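Technical annex B. To support the medicinal chemistry partners, we prepared a structural model of the target in complex with iron/sulfur cluster, based solely on the information shown next.
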Amino acid sequence: METFVPLYISNICDSSCLMCNLRRNNPNVKRVEANTEIIRRQLKIIKDFENISAVCFLTGERSAPADRLHNLKLIINSIKFAFEIGFKKAFFNIGSLTAGEVRILSQEFNASEKPKLVLSLFQETYDRSAYSKYFGNDKSGSKADYDKRLSTIDIWVEHGFSAIDIGILLGFERPLEDDINALIAHANKFVSASIEVYVSTPRIKGGSVSDDTYKMVLKQIRSALPKAKLILTTRESVSFINDVIDLFDVVSPGSSDICPYSYDEYIPNNVSTSQFIIDEKRLRPSVVLDQINCKNIVHYNKQS
Ligand code: SF4
């Protein structure tokens, strides 16, 4: 079992995904971007206090070229610092990328660092009409561009990177079975090319996917993708995580609030700054890991 901690460093977003708290037209969100000093402090807490050496950086998806470049530089600097202080793996989820942006990333990371860097980019749905309904069809919002999103993974791999995290979002209306099959085919394309493939299948809180349906979907994906690494997201409760842990390869405890980690027992998950709200009051990542029924967790040094 692997782990990583999600670290949201900005909630500023130019896209309008219907189900997301961070959509640009949501007036109730207080927009925040962490500075370098705060991000570094967060990484030190995750590494030295939580004893976890894998992280996933997240931001909203920007549209204007200058904003995109600013966001990309913030991410690059954060990843470089993470590697400097000993993180073994860094995921990042900032939306689709142009070929020029992937080229910048490729120039910034050397051959020994590239395998440690995972592009997280979920297509969310492979159904074009559902995509347009839930994620927009206005090409000025970056996420609304279905093809740009899908092609980013190919561009990433063409530039010599070897790890991806793809996925679908469950809980909104579309032919689910078709989507699951499309996800499996997409993942298998990269598994057969010897790429390290992570697969994420989060579900929307309060959406149409019950626990039983979710378990069935997870079992289907697990059996179709024995070589992919299935990620169980931070959205689920500890009891549900323990219920389905055997189907997964990765668990990611944390919060979708901006730079939420401290030395306190609980971590914040405020509706005015988070991407989504978890039902239970969320404990620190290492405490959650200690509550999970799993003997060895890679990237986590449990303190005795
Ligand atoms: S899902 Fe991502 S791109 Fe869409 S509104 Fe939320 S943060 Fe922005």
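Notes passed to the chemistry partners:
Residues 2-290 form a domain with the TIM Barrel fold (CATH 3.20.20.70).
The chain has nine helices and nine strands.
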